[in-house]
Design a protein that fits this description.
CATH class of the largest domain in chain B: Alpha Beta
Helix content of chain A: 40-55%
Number of strands of chain A: 7
Shape of chain B: globular
Strand order of the largest sheet of chain B: 3-2-4-5-7-6-12
Distance between the termini of chain B: 38 Å
Strand content of chain A: 5-15%
Structural class of chain A: alpha/beta
Distance between the termini of chain A: 22 Å
CATH architecture of chain A: 3-Layer(aba) Sandwich
Strand content of chain B: 15-25%
Oligomer: heterodimer
Largest interface: A-B, 30 and 29 residues
Order of helices and strands of chain B: EHEHHEHEHHEHEHEEEEHEEHEHEHH
Number of helices of chain A: 9
Largest sheet of chain B: 7 strands, mixed
Number of helices of chain B: 13
CATH architecture of the largest domain in chain B: 3-Layer(aba) Sandwich
Radius of gyration of chain A: 17 Å
Shape of chain A: globular
CATH topology of the largest domain in chain B: Rossmann fold
Chain lengths: 281, 313
């Protein structure tokens, strides 16, 4: 497929999944739309372009792993996994409801899930353990982990970043969904993380800085990161907008963890439908 | 005859090394205490399967979980008290997912001695016991520690193994048949039963000698597994003696004493006595001095039993 067509397809997929995310959260009357919408373009890049996976064989040992450290963005990964055929789409209706498979935060019991998130700061150390095991077993796969920028406030992130560089884990790729907003306000106002690129560089990582809504940049960054075998772990700083694609959710911390009401749901879907994929970034 | 002594952590290190020779999936992690925890024996022999994580317990526990998720059998060791630093990681990454990680906490209890309060874990049994899926074990001698390390390699699921710093008498031999969850009766007697764990097994055995001179005969049971608890044995011996004492180098809240109390109150309500730290921290000192001062030594246990037995009569 020509690169241009592929990009359009990926963008179209992200648009479609944005609607799924909003519908799931609206249906559950609970969930985290802001971070799911900021992360979805990168997740589409990962799942529909980069990751080596077999949806029919979720625990295939040579698959690339994806650790969603910011587990509250479960609607995004559930929408992706259902679309990829890991489980029936009808499961999405049960999201966050009793006796259902799709828990509020991902669980390892869900096909396709490689990390049970929900408590921030824990994904990279888990990914690090997988990356170490892959090296021991000489498995030629990459381990991806997605964290949030608010999550960088967790001290454990830095324990893991130090260890990943120490063990020269060039099979570990972290994606920082830098959406600028956390639960109670702007990152800059709650606890400024400062210059993220400089911090990760100082910890011995390759740093790739991109617009995380611009699909050509996402694809390019993933290609680069997956091939950069220079004995260093890599972080893709994905500069994004929390709530991207829904006007009233963008950079609005009130929609970190709140479901839209009837009116808001209608408006959100309208906003997403109006997205012009050719221009979107 | 000279009684052979060794620390339970020595048994841990020795067995881990042996296990490494026969099981290629075994890996070990430590947080800059491998000389103290004895995981260094493994580290020296199998450097490619040993991960030095630096002084970063959260990262160690999380990485161990990732290794377990990938089919490895990780043993992650540090001081008991510092493993608590990573408690919520253990909760959310390991026990929540029922991952096959063996956490080993050495230097547990006030027997850690001179280092004082900061290093003396007296709450670790309580907190690990409260985690669903997690099993909790504590050997009373180095041979039992070895047996536990091997038993855990065959057991699938998260575990916490609690060990002590100081050398204690070796009361088992290599033929000892160890089984997770089965208490070991070391001594029989009709007047009372002492359920003891870890180093306090030895104090309980000495207490039984003292009591014997007073014509009081007691059961001494080695409770190497605090979870899953040997419920049937506890109820059976409570019925036989109507005089139950627990003994542990741990807070009486939530430890073996708490666990036995839970079992008895639901199944065979009877008055019992918990020997252990009485909800307070200890201090620096030699282990035997501390045991005497805080009521964990054989004399203190014997005294508690005597008071209890005389009340019963």
């Amino acid at each position: 497929m020509a690169k241009q067509d592929l990009i359009i397809q990926l963008k179209q997929k992200a648009k479609e999944l944005r609607k799924e995310i909003i519908a799931m959260i609206y249906n559950a009357k609970s969930g985290h739309p802001g971070g799911s919408l900021s992360a979805i373009d990168m997740m589409v890049g990962l799942y529909y372009y980069k990751l080596r996976l077999e949806p029919k064989n979720p625990l295939w040992q040579d698959r690339d792993r994806f650790v969603l450290s910011k587990g509250h963005c479960s609607p995004a990964i559930y929408a992706v996994l259902a679309d990829k055929g890991y489980f029936p789409k009808s499961e999405l209706d049960g999201y966050r409801k009793i006796n259902s498979m799709l828990q509020g935060h991902p669980e390892l019991s869900i096909p396709g899930i490689d990390f049970a998130g929900g408590a921030l700061g824990q994904g990279i150390c888990f990914a690090l353990g997988i990356a170490l095991a892959c090296k021991l077993d000489k498995r030629n796969c990459n381990v991806y982990a997605m964290i949030g920028d608010g999550e960088m406030q967790e001290g454990a992130i830095w324990e893991s970043s130090m260890a990943a560089a120490f063990y020269k884990l060039d099979n570990l790729i972290v994606v920082l969904d830098k959406n600028q907003v956390q639960q109670t306000g702007k990152i800059k106002e709650i606890m400024d993380i400062g210059n993220a690129a400089l911090k990760w560089k100082a910890f011995g990582w390759n740093v790739i800085d991109i617009n995380g809504h611009d699909m050509p940049q996402i694809v390019k960054a993933l290609d680069k990161a997956s091939k950069l075998k220079n004995k260093k772990p890599t972080i893709i700083i994905s500069n994004t907008i929390k709530g991207k694609g829904v006007s009233f959710m963008e950079l609005n911390h009130k929609f970190h963890g709140k479901a839209p009401n009837d009116m808001e749901y209608k408006k959100a879907i309208e906003d997403i439908e109006k997205i012009d994929v050719k221009k979107f970034k | 005859m000279e009684i052979q002594k060794n620390a339970t952590r020595d048994g841990y290190g020795k067995a881990l090394l042996e296990l490494g020779k026969t099981n290629a999936n075994v890996v070990a992690l430590d947080a800059d205490l491998s000389d103290s925890t004895r995981s260094e024996y493994f580290a020296k022999q199998f450097p490619e399967r040993f991960f030095s994580m630096g002084i970063a317990e959260q990262d160690m526990v999380g990485a161990a979980a990732g290794l377990a998720f990938s089919g490895k059998i990780p043993y992650a060791s540090t001081f008991a008290v510092f493993s608590e630093r990573a408690y919520e990681f253990t909760r959310n990454i390991i026990s929540r997912n029922n991952l096959n990680v063996k956490i080993a906490g050495s230097h547990a209890g006030i027997a850690t001695g001179e280092d004082g309060k900061s290093a003396q874990a007296i709450e670790d049994i309580a907190i690990y016991r409260a985690l669903p899926n997690m099993i909790v074990l504590q050997p009373c001698d180095a041979i039992e520690a070895e047996k536990i390390v091997f038993a855990l390699a065959d057991y699938k699921g998260p575990s916490y193994m609690r060990m002590h710093r100081n050398a204690v008498p070796i009361i088992h031999n290599s033929n000892y048949k160890f089984e997770i969850g089965k208490g070991e009766i070391l001594r029989k007697g009709e007047d009372a039963v002492i359920f003891a764990t870890g180093t306090l097994v030895h104090e309980a055995l000495k207490a039984a000698e003292i009591l014997e001179n007073e014509k009081i005969k007691v059961y001494v049971v080695n409770m190497h597994t605090i979870k899953p608890l040997d419920i049937n044995l506890i109820i059976d011996l409570a019925k036989k003696t109507n005089c139950v004492i627990t003994a542990e180098d741990h807070n009486v809240i939530g430890g073996l004493g708490g666990a036995v109390a839970e079992v008895l109150s639901e199944n065979y309500p009877c008055i019992m006595k918990r020997v252990g730290l009485q909800d307070k921290y200890a201090e620096s000192g030699k282990p035997d001095e501390l045991y005497k001062k805080y009521g964990l030594d054989a004399e203190s246990i014997a005294e508690e039993v005597m008071k209890f037995v005389s009340k019963k009569k």
